[in-house]
Amino acid sequence: MKKLKELVLDETFEMFVLLKNADVRMAKNGKKFIAFTFQDTSGTIDGKFWDASEEEIKKFSAGRVVLLGGKREAYQGAPQIKILNMRLATETEPDSPSLYMEKAPISREEMEAEFSSAIFEITNANWNRIVRHLFSQYQQQFFEFPAAKRNHHAFAGGLAYHTLSMLRIAKSLTDFYPEINKALLYAGIILHDLGKVIELTGPISTEYTLAGNLLGHLVIVDEEITKTCQTLKIDDRSEDVLILKHLVLSHHGLLEYGSPVRPQILEAEILHQLDNMDASIQMMLGALRSINPGERTERIFGMDNRNFYLPHFND
Amino acid sequence: MKKLKELVLDETFEMFVLLKNADVRMAKNGKKFIAFTFQDTSGTIDGKFWDASEEEIKKFSAGRVVLLGGKREAYQGAPQIKILNMRLATETEPDSPSLYMEKAPISREEMEAEFSSAIFEITNANWNRIVRHLFSQYQQQFFEFPAAKRNHHAFAGGLAYHTLSMLRIAKSLTDFYPEINKALLYAGIILHDLGKVIELTGPISTEYTLAGNLLGHLVIVDEEITKTCQTLKIDDRSEDVLILKHLVLSHHGLLEYGSPVRPQILEAEILHQLDNMDASIQMMLGALRSINPGERTERIFGMDNRNFYLPHFND
Amino acid sequence: MKKLKELVLDETFEMFVLLKNADVRMAKNGKKFIAFTFQDTSGTIDGKFWDASEEEIKKFSAGRVVLLGGKREAYQGAPQIKILNMRLATETEPDSPSLYMEKAPISREEMEAEFSSAIFEITNANWNRIVRHLFSQYQQQFFEFPAAKRNHHAFAGGLAYHTLSMLRIAKSLTDFYPEINKALLYAGIILHDLGKVIELTGPISTEYTLAGNLLGHLVIVDEEITKTCQTLKIDDRSEDVLILKHLVLSHHGLLEYGSPVRPQILEAEILHQLDNMDASIQMMLGALRSINPGERTERIFGMDNRNFYLPHFND
Amino acid sequence: MKKLKELVLDETFEMFVLLKNADVRMAKNGKKFIAFTFQDTSGTIDGKFWDASEEEIKKFSAGRVVLLGGKREAYQGAPQIKILNMRLATETEPDSPSLYMEKAPISREEMEAEFSSAIFEITNANWNRIVRHLFSQYQQQFFEFPAAKRNHHAFAGGLAYHTLSMLRIAKSLTDFYPEINKALLYAGIILHDLGKVIELTGPISTEYTLAGNLLGHLVIVDEEITKTCQTLKIDDRSEDVLILKHLVLSHHGLLEYGSPVRPQILEAEILHQLDNMDASIQMMLGALRSINPGERTERIFGMDNRNFYLPHFND
Amino acid sequence: MKKLKELVLDETFEMFVLLKNADVRMAKNGKKFIAFTFQDTSGTIDGKFWDASEEEIKKFSAGRVVLLGGKREAYQGAPQIKILNMRLATETEPDSPSLYMEKAPISREEMEAEFSSAIFEITNANWNRIVRHLFSQYQQQFFEFPAAKRNHHAFAGGLAYHTLSMLRIAKSLTDFYPEINKALLYAGIILHDLGKVIELTGPISTEYTLAGNLLGHLVIVDEEITKTCQTLKIDDRSEDVLILKHLVLSHHGLLEYGSPVRPQILEAEILHQLDNMDASIQMMLGALRSINPGERTERIFGMDNRNFYLPHFND
Amino acid sequence: MKKLKELVLDETFEMFVLLKNADVRMAKNGKKFIAFTFQDTSGTIDGKFWDASEEEIKKFSAGRVVLLGGKREAYQGAPQIKILNMRLATETEPDSPSLYMEKAPISREEMEAEFSSAIFEITNANWNRIVRHLFSQYQQQFFEFPAAKRNHHAFAGGLAYHTLSMLRIAKSLTDFYPEINKALLYAGIILHDLGKVIELTGPISTEYTLAGNLLGHLVIVDEEITKTCQTLKIDDRSEDVLILKHLVLSHHGLLEYGSPVRPQILEAEILHQLDNMDASIQMMLGALRSINPGERTERIFGMDNRNFYLPHFND
């Protein structure tokens, strides 16, 4: 059976999908409608449900699985679903949300194994103990959360997958440039976005928490390292702890992007650039997968609102 | 006897002064010189000591008191001292550095009393306990440190005095605008710059510490609140703790100025503006005190490099 | 009876309100509608009147009082009224617009008294004569006009009230910092926004006049001072007149905000910051009054489009 | 005899020149020196007079004519004079400053004639009366002042010459584009920089006046128009007066460049662009005249600090 | 018979017009509509065709002439047509698109003559040969293309007309300033926008080509000069060729506007400013022609989104 | 024997070095001096030669080898040489400049082999032919030139080495992300900076050529591809050629950095980021190699003028 992202323009269909988001809004004419984001393992498409009754609003909430009949159309360049009919999946049908969530392209087990060997290479005792402590404390959410509310790696497990991709490129870099401190770079990469498990609410209907809004995930990790040091009796004013914190705090690269300090250490600058590169590639690939050669993607907010052209050479 | 700042152009003098800074540099001709900042209670003036021998460099180090014979000149609009002769003060002379340091215009005792009553008005239990704990932990340095390496309130006790001035204006504001939460604003003001006692090295030859460079004083206070909560068993994810941290983290107002988040709470925005206003007034007053009506101050770095005109109406 | 701002979500009501604005626009379907701003003394809420006939457009014009039946809904986070029925108020009903206008929180008489004593403290003869002359010339409009077309203090009397708030904070500042020239600061505050009585059309359906658009209120006040000097035979090139003009011209602080010169006098910089602070507080308070603890305000244009969070501590 | 600008690198000379500027500064070694700008009708070159005595400082002041013996060298790409000997010109020698001032390339009489016919074409009565009144009031200075303290047209008569060049290009434009209101554009051009006769101190040792610093020449002209209207009993709130003022106030084009309003009228935008174009051409030509084909000019501050290349095609 | 731009608000009409653009979009309700731009020789007005069938979409495509019955209304300040009825023009009716296209105000023959004499004045042999070669190669499109997709000179022949206007002003400038190399400036002007015949698709339904998007018209002309040199055996690294290329590449003035280098030659800077000035005047005149005295134009994207006021003095 | 970069502070020495740069300047006192950059295979250090005679200036020109006696000092944080004595190397001494040039860390042969196999992987015929043609045409200079005048990879062979590093990281990336078109990315990387062999004068006394200044290396490569297509009869308007050119033109990422277009293709964006990352790492490593743990590097112009801290963990 076809997946959401495989539908072509004007194709009609009926399939089970997950309601990833279900925002109730009011139309200009005063009636309510639901702005859905439908999801299956191939990705997400939006669709609007007009003139929604209070009952329908209650029934079709985020996180439910539905049998959706619709037509794949386009609105201002982006694909969208025209809803023809829709009902909740029953118990005898495939109604478990986890069946429809986009997943990282490799399994959790493989990822865990790669993280294990990466942590093994963190040879500085303080860094190793801090990383192990926090990694095991937040492991559950780390492998379930997306890397961002939207934009890049916005799928279940995206946070772990993004972190892993960075570790892989970092490995190549440290092979070419032996002056780079591999232990530090690995420790920094593993912790840099870990605060997102506190900044965001989770993989479905992802929102910012109050702590996320008021502190941001950079400071949140800094606090977690501080508490870990107190617990493990590590001096949090020693140079190696200060440097690890600095990698986390400076990884957005510029003050304008929310880092309270700019990178002042070789590995901090590299961490920032790796983060940037991996996020960019994911955002571009995500948008390019939805179009055909000769077309342009929709504008990508996280890429300065640029759109990208897909050449014919992949035919 | 005349003070440093009372000297007029081309006046010669002999007086005891403190060596606030003593930076050794190399002239274009390859010889070393010492760039001194001389200080007494009236303020500071720079002066260069040419062709310094290794022995002189060792002898005339920052923090020593000297008997200085010189002439008050000007260099590119700023006052400077031409050094005619100079020797260390002896034990029988007034050789204690504290005699020459610029001080806050009111006494430490008065300041302590005002802080006490301000803390008394912090009626929220969590905020009150956190503020009391940190205030007593760092009280010693808080009353000795300057508020900045240079720019505003750069004198011993300047940190406490700047904080106090802000509390005073805050009091007026909360009188006019009763919607402002006075307890929160007071707690935020008292803690906002407390991290400077860790960010800076102290009142003499003030430099940034490694923690100051790599974390910045905003994040340092945030960490201190985190540790205090762990010690006092306060939930550091409760709304009132998050908000207090937010006031500290956002008080630079803009991301470009090093706040990882912009103010999102009424009192956070007000704290930022009060900080700005008090610092500005101090910088302008400091520069205006050195000139005569009809003249312009030197350019003030912290005021976008503007200079200011002193009108004749004060005559 | 309930006021506009006291209505809760989905509450239906019938009440008399003033039509503060009534902009006729065309919908995408080619039919006309009226975008109303309804007002009573508690504030304003928008509402759209669909498919308006030419007769209705003529009848429901800005400045009229209507009996409005409606429902309080929300559109994109901001409160709005769904209009159920609406008719003009009759002569036997409370149909005077002044009954529904938001007002400054203190009476005109009290404000006048405070202005009188403030002007009394302007001890420089030139400044005093100029201020008295312009204040009495434009007194009527000064106490009726809003401080801005929208954003801060956008209510009848808002201009006088904003000016008065600034005078109050200025009083505290000059108490702490006796170096500030109180006479100059008071004169500058009273005149700084007086040009708005020429820049804007008035308290209802407020628009910019041609002079407002082509010159702006800063230059308008400058011209008024120039004319006053010619009338009162004061030398408009004397230092004290130049300085007073400078305070007015520079009070937006930055060239980008429309000041032809940046502040170059202590009191000019302070005036700019006081203006900023009072306007900010009013904008935030205005937005916070419409929401409940735990919610966020709508985005405030004048505050760099930020929204603000209302904590639970006020419960 | 050779002129200053005709000297080649390393050429020694003796000639009478005017001291255009004579700034006394202190060298790093504490001795005073005079930074001269020498001038004759070909242009200006800088030169430093080391170890100046108090008597020499008094004698060699700006505005005096000297017999200068020196060598034409270069310092950081810019030509400069090494002073070999120097004495004041005597009464029997050509000691009148006016003999050495750079002048506009056409005579004052020719310029006056062109202005007369331009004013004749200002057919709107209000604009014509205002222009005539102010032009005759400031005529003397208008033909003597430079157009700027430095940068473009910084020579005696430069203000009138710059204004005239703009009128000439404006004439061509109004020929091609008859929709442009020629009377308005001419009136705006003639008045746009007239305030510089109040903003600056004059053609020698040009500095900003207090009014120049605190108000700026845009607002100064606006005030002069206001006073003229009061004197001539013209309504200064009539549309044509508002528009004329708008042309003057907006002629810097951007708020960042000191215009309190941006151009909102066709002729205001054109005036701004003509001003820009003529000033740019003059700055570039001035710098290019000092170099040979294949070389680059010094960096020009008023052209975003760019330097320009002189090709060989002019050989 | 009335033209499109002569219709007044609310006037109904029936007339033949060209469909300049016909973009098919989807409304929020899921139905398709066509966003038309209607055109006759007086200009263009937009109008929406709701609920378009597939047949209508095919029939009413860009480039067809239709008999349009409609009403002239306004939408958000801009004129628009409400479509009442519409059918294709038949063979017996005036159905040739060229009858309805806006044209340059002077004839192609006159323009060709002026270009001929301008090219005659390009006295440098290399420049002359390059210009002649490219001008004759692309002559056909050069006289048919618009100067831009929208904004300035967006009509058939606009590219040639814009180029010609610049040549005219350049002629005046070179008369006043004989230091300007007329041959170079003329050559640069003629070539500067020639790449638009490759960057854009043509005068109807103007879009960017793939080369236009990926290279831009500046680099396209640079490539064309390179190829011409290879064909004509001119050394493309000689100074005069480098300079001509530089004029083309730098004519947007700033890197931010897409020039890979900023102007470094007198004539390059002047070319940039002339381009700017002529484009600005055309944009303003185009917008001002649609409104009455006392009104403001719609916001003009190419003029930093400003709108302009039309005074009454033209009555 | 010790190398230049191995000298410690205040160490005296005598060694053969190459004069990489020898700029003659004039001191404030009017005497000439030579600002040398001394070089051996360990790197470069600056040193000033005071009071240089004309004969010495002629003798000690860039590109000569000298026997230098000196002392390693420091000036404003950067190492510098105090010259004690200096003479030209004789024929019997090691006087070949190539003995002293900093070189890429791997041999030319190894690099050539890696380039060969990379070109082999460019499977698109057009790209392969273009790359082969240009690579063989400019091979000689490509392996000798630096990658920049200063900043990153500023050593002989730096251009080839920088390009090779990028190919290596690109290889890892294409392994992880198979959607990336490896042939295109390799072709783009090899050509992206090839224009520097025309933009710069060579490995010694590196300056910009006229073509470099007026066109820039991005446009230069674009022209070279254009000429290659004409020579090899490849259609330069085909999609694959347009895309290859686009990769070159857009590789500075932002218009402000001199790209006439921003990246619009996945591989173009990746090329830009790889370029950035490799250049950054080289600049940081270069600066960090000159300092000890606990110190800060000098400010690095190409890294937004930041300096970097070297932690103690490498001890």
Automatic annotation (TrEMBL), chains A, B, C, D, E, F:
GO BP annotation list: rRNA 3'-end processing
Alphabetical list of Pfam families matching this protein: HD, tRNA_anti-codon
Gene Ontology molecular function, alphabetical: exonuclease activity; nucleic acid binding
UniProt key word Nuclease: yes
Residue span, HD domain: 162-280
Top-level taxon in the UniProt lineage: Bacteria
UniProt KW keywords: Exonuclease, Hydrolase, Nuclease
Gene3D superfamilies: Hypothetical protein af1432
SUPFAM superfamilies: HD-domain/PDEase-like
Protein name, entry field: 3'-5' exonuclease
Provenance organism: Vagococcus elongatus
